[in-house]
Amino acid sequence: MFNSNSKIKNVSAEEAYKLINGDKEFIIIDVRTKEEYEDGHIPGAKLVPVQILSMKLDELDKYKDKPVLVYCASGGRSPRAVETLANNDFKNIYHLSRGIGSWRYSLSR
User: What is the maximum alpha-carbon separation in the chain?
Assistant: First the structure.
């Protein structure tokens, strides 16, 4: 999906879990709706719905050089968010390829 862009890596839930637990600098961005987020999200995830992501780039600017994991429910909305981040100089983006639906670990509520 993102083969042309080396700063974006598609990862499975297992890979994402290992990455998050191995690097405390990891920023996790949930691009679903507030309701979906409140039903359960990856611990530590920041809610930034894809519809408003471009308006929140100033707030996210401080994370440009940190590893960022982006996810949605099933991998349908997050590619748009990943492209937005990549086009705004984020350098190390991980995309949870099948969304939180593939996440088999504990969730925060």
Answer: 36
